[in-house]
Amino acid sequence: MACRSARTLFPVTATCAYMNNAADTPPPVPVAEAMVAFIEDNHSFGCQNFERWVATQERCRGAFARLVNADPAEIAFVKNTTQGLIIAAEAMPLRRGDLILVDDLEFPSNVLPWEMVARRRGARVKTIRSRVGRVTPDQVEQAVNRQVKVLALSAVQYENGFFADLEAIGEICERSGVFFVVDAIQACGVMPVDVRRWRCTALATGGHKFLMSVGGCGFLYLCADALDRLEPVNVGWLGQRDPMAFSSTYDPADGARRVEEGNPSMVAIFGLDASLALLLDIGLDAVSSHVLALGRRLVEGLETKGYRVDSPQGDGERSSITLFRGGPLSSRMLHGRLAEAGVVTALRGNGLRASLHLYNDDEDIDRLLDALP
Ligand SMILES: Cc1ncc(COP(=O)(O)O)c(C=O)c1O
Q1: DSSP per-residue letters across 104-136
Q2: Less crowded by CB within 10 Å, the N or C end of the chain?
Q3: pLDDT confidence of residue 233
Q4: CA distance readout (Å), 360 to 9, 133, 140, 188, 274
Q5: What is the pLDDT of residue 100?
Q6: What pLDDT, on a 0 to 100 scale, did the predictor assign at position 232?
Q7: Rounded to whole angstroms, how far apart are CA atoms 274 and 285?
Q8: Alpha-carbon distance 84 to 148, whole Å?
């Protein structure tokens, strides 16, 4: 299927020009149907079809693994991105005096867990200062030394949409023996993600944004080669090698599944199973090319109208997100003006954030541009 034909699957396109996918993507019809089917099954039959649910869950795990170029055994279901990052942070073998690198563009969920774990283990968090909205491989190279044990970075920054050079940064981490933890929620489902090429130790994402399902379920990738050096603290019955043995002797599952401590949101997993099928059918190269082309049209239109674009625009730096400001109105007033014209954006930083997905089209972009004073 092509992006253009998939537009008809998104009821939100009939109500507005929705460009707030970086906050929440309204699920398409097959995703809503899959979730309703699960609820009807549960409603009528209890858990008698549990084995079918588990089969769907495992298919979903495999589909996400394919999306990010991982092995299914390296994927765990988590509640959300934040929980994935907390699990990764707690699992790091950090000791007194170790350093954790973050940067000043990160969403709080990729800073707070690191500060907490540093405080308890006597480690320290050091912040890389971004330059003109970017964190570059050069800056990472300069910040890394023998004390640095972890680098935590977003693939795509939530505010300005900067897409980091993860391949070069991952190579520095690997060469320096630094665990590389990636917050990928603003990338997964809309930009190509490749845990092997990026050499990630861990990568976390949630299901309610570009993965087009609902809140309550996300994914954590844990690299198989790193697993025996990690010390996950969240343990429970579902993370055991054989959960149905109900044994209280710790015997963890071989792969990332060991951090799945208890029941997940099965309804959200049914949604994700359907959305991943759609995304893999369209292909992430097609989805990203589509949003980057729309983004180009948006940036050109904004600049023609005298607005300032704050998202980095270099080769490989762009994503689904465009942050802009300017014109005669304050950003707050402009946000309201656009909403009145049926154009949904978000207030972020000093400006407005427009975030696009596969169902957006040229008309959505022109509707935004036409509504600008
Ligand atoms: C970059 C980034 N990380 C983490 C989060 C939090 O995600 P979740 O609610 O799935 O934990 C967000 C939410 O906007 C985000 O943009």
Answers
A1: TT--GGGTHHHHHHHHHHT-EEEEEPPBTTB--
A2: C
A3: 87
A4: 12, 25, 35, 17, 20
A5: 98
A6: 87
A7: 19
A8: 21
What six digits make up the tokens of 63? Answer: 């589909």
Evaluate if pTM is beyond 0.85: yes
* pLDDT tens by residue, 90-108: 999 999 999 999 999 999 9
Which ligand 1 atom is nearest residue 218's CA?
A: 10
- Closest C-alpha residue for ligand 1 atom 3: 107
Average pLDDT score over residue span 116-137: 98
Tokens of 358: 């596969």
**How remote is the CA of residue 220 from the centroid of ligand 1, in Å?**
13
Residue closest by Cα to atom 12 of ligand 1: 107
Mean pLDDT of 166-178: 98
Q: How far apart are CA 139 and CA 143, in angstroms?
A: 6
- Please enumerate in sequence order all residues whose Cβ is within 8 A of that of 203, keeping only pairs 6 or more positions apart, or say none: 68, 181, 182, 183, 184, 193, 195, 220, 221
Report how far ligand 1's centroid is from the alpha carbon of 247 (Å). Answer: 35
CA–centroid distance, residue 319 to ligand 1 (Å): 16
- What does DSSP say about strands 346-348 and 351-355: parallel, antiparallel, or unpaired? antiparallel
Q: What percent of the chain has pLDDT over 90?
A: 98
Look at residue 110 and tell me whether its pLDDT is greater than 90.
yes
Average pLDDT, the chain: 97
Nearest-atom index, ligand 1, CA of 23: 14
Residue 53 in contact with ligand 1 by CB distance below 6 A: no
In eight-state DSSP terms, residue 238 is G
Kindly report the number of other CB atoms within 10 A of residue 136's CB atom.
17
Indicate which residue's Cα is closest to atom 7 of ligand 1.
81
Query: Which letter does DSSP use for residue 316 in this model?
Result: T
Q: Which long-range contacts (CB under 8 A, 24 or more apart) does 227-234 make?
A: 227/255, 227/256, 229/93, 230/91, 230/92, 230/93, 230/201, 231/90, 231/91, 231/92, 231/93, 232/87, 232/90, 232/91, 232/258, 232/259, 233/90, 233/91, 234/87, 234/90, 234/259, 234/261
Angle between the 50-68 and 266-282 helix axes, to the nearest 10 degrees?
A: 40
DSSP 212: -
Q: Is 160 in the pocket of ligand 1 (CB under 6 A)?
A: no
Q: Which of 191, 181, 125 is nearest to 156 (CA)?
A: 191
Measure 273 CA to ligand 1 centroid, in angstroms.
Answer: 20
